[in-house]
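fwd from M.: "can u put these together and see what the complex looks like"

so here's what she sent:
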Amino acid sequence: MSGTLNKVMLIGHLGDEVKIHYFEGGNCIARFPLATNETYTNRQTGEKVTNTEWHNIVVRNKAAEICEKYLSKGDKVYVEGRLKNRQWQGEDGNMRYTTEVHVQDFTFLTTKNESLQNTQMQGTAPQNEPSRPSAPEVPIDDTEEDDDLPF
Amino acid sequence: MSGTLNKVMLIGHLGDEVKIHYFEGGNCIARFPLATNETYTNRQTGEKVTNTEWHNIVVRNKAAEICEKYLSKGDKVYVEGRLKNRQWQGEDGNMRYTTEVHVQDFTFLTTKNESLQNTQMQGTAPQNEPSRPSAPEVPIDDTEEDDDLPF
Amino acid sequence: MSGTLNKVMLIGHLGDEVKIHYFEGGNCIARFPLATNETYTNRQTGEKVTNTEWHNIVVRNKAAEICEKYLSKGDKVYVEGRLKNRQWQGEDGNMRYTTEVHVQDFTFLTTKNESLQNTQMQGTAPQNEPSRPSAPEVPIDDTEEDDDLPF
Amino acid sequence: MSGTLNKVMLIGHLGDEVKIHYFEGGNCIARFPLATNETYTNRQTGEKVTNTEWHNIVVRNKAAEICEKYLSKGDKVYVEGRLKNRQWQGEDGNMRYTTEVHVQDFTFLTTKNESLQNTQMQGTAPQNEPSRPSAPEVPIDDTEEDDDLPF
DNA sequence: TTTT
DNA sequence: TTTT
C-alpha cells in the first residue's frame, strides 16, 4: 500500500473496433478508443456546445479477449481502471507521450452483438475482478513481461 | 457481468478499534465504524453546520487481518467497496436492517502505529486487490461459507 | 473542507416508479429503489448465484423533477451521491434506521420513455451539477429546510 | 445529459508548487503535478517494483486560489475531476498532446501549512462543489473564455 | 421491486 | 473515431 489512489471511471462509446495483440507467452493486450461527451451552454453566446474526449483504453489477457469478442464500434461500456503514462520514440526521433486507461473492471452497457447474452455473465470477470466473492475459475496470468514493448 | 455497478468510496476516521472474528475454516471478518463529515452553512441562519455520517465497514480474510493489525481508533483511511444490506432478527423478535460497506480495496492515510512503515506496502493488498499487476504472494481464500452467519 | 470523502456510484435498474413529494416552499424530494446485481459461482457447489442489492435513492428539487419526468420502473440509470443515514420513530414506537443515497449527479442509461430525446440534454443537470463548465440557467434552491421532516 | 461519465479520482502528493495564472477578466487557472504510486512484486524476479505516475492537475478560479494558498510541494491531496486532452503547437512546430485532470472537487489530506485549519472549511468548496447542501456564498464565474489559450 |  |  502506497497511500495513494489512481482511479478512472468512464462510461462511453467505442469509437472503433477492439484491436488485440498476442504475445509469445500467451498474454495479450487489447486496445480501443472510448468517447465521452460533455454538453454545456456557452454563457456568452448562449449556444450549446458538445465536447468529446477520447480515451485510450487498454485491457489485458482474459479481459482483453472478452472485450475483443463482445464489444464493437459504437457499443456503450463502463470501464474502471488506472491512468498510466507511456512514452516511446517516434519515427522522427522525437519522444511521444500518451496517457492510457488500464482497465481493472468493466461492464457492458449495450452490445450490438446480442448473441452473448449468457456468456456475458463471465464477461465481467477481468483480471483479479474485485467484485467477485468467489475465485474465478480460470486463473489469469498478469505477468507484465511485455512492459517494455512499445504498446 | 450484470451490467450494474455498486461502488462506495470513503475517506474517513475510525470511530473505534477494529473488531475481528475468526471462523472455523480459518476465514475471518473484521468490522469497524468509519466517520465522514460534511460541513456547510445554513442559508437561513448563517450558522455553520457539521454532519457526521457513520459507516459500517466490513473487511474479510487477509485484508481483515491487515486492518486489525495496523488500524486504530482515530486513524484516517480510504476504503472502496460495495454496499450490502443485511438483516437479522433482534432479541426483541423484530427484524433489524443494516447497510454495510464490504471492502474491496483500501489504503492507509494515517496510522498512529508508525511501525508499519515497511509492512504497509502489502497492507494495501486486500482480497483480489485490483491495482496489482502481479499476483499477490499469498492466495486469499474468499469463500463465503459464512454467508448465512449473522454478521 | 473536512478532509473526508463520502461517495457512492451506482448503475442499476429502478425497481419502482419515482415518487415525488413537494414541500410548501416549492422544494421537492424524489425517491426510488435501485437494484444492483452481483453474480458469482459458489466455489463449493459450483452453482451460479445472483445477489440483488436494493438502494434507497433520494433526489432533490430540479433533479428530482427530471427523474420523476423521465425515469420509469425498469430503466437503467447511473447515480452518484453520498451515503446518508436517517432514523425515525416507527408506528410501534421503535426507532427505524435507513441508509440512503443522496444524489449529486446522474445520467440516464436507458429510458423507456423515448420522448425525452432532446430534453434529455438538460436531464443531467442536477443540483450544482459538477460536470458543467457553465452555470445552469435555472438556479436551484437547495436549502434543506425540510431536514427534520421524516423523509 | 449525454449518457456518458468521465471521472478521475486521485490521492497523491504534489511534485511541485502550485502555479497560478490570472486572466484579464479575473478568472484564473492553477496547475500542479500530482504523483501516485503503485507497488508490486515482479513475479519472475521476486523484486519489489514501484511505479510513479505523474498527473497534470488543473484547477480554476476560486478553487485555484485555495489550492495556491494552502497546498505546497509534498502535500497529500484528494482530487476528483475529468480527463481532458489538450493539444498545442510546440516551439519546433510539432503538435504536443497532454492529458489533464480538470478538478471538480478536492480535499486536503495533509498540509505543511497548518495555518489553514479554520480556513480549510471553505477550502473544499470548488466550482459548483457538489457535496454542499447549501449554496456557496461566492458565485464562481466558470466561463471558459480562456479555452483556446495554450494552458 | 429491477435487470440479464 | 463514438453517441444523443
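replying to her w this: The CA atoms of residues 66 and 123 of chain C lie 6 Å apart.
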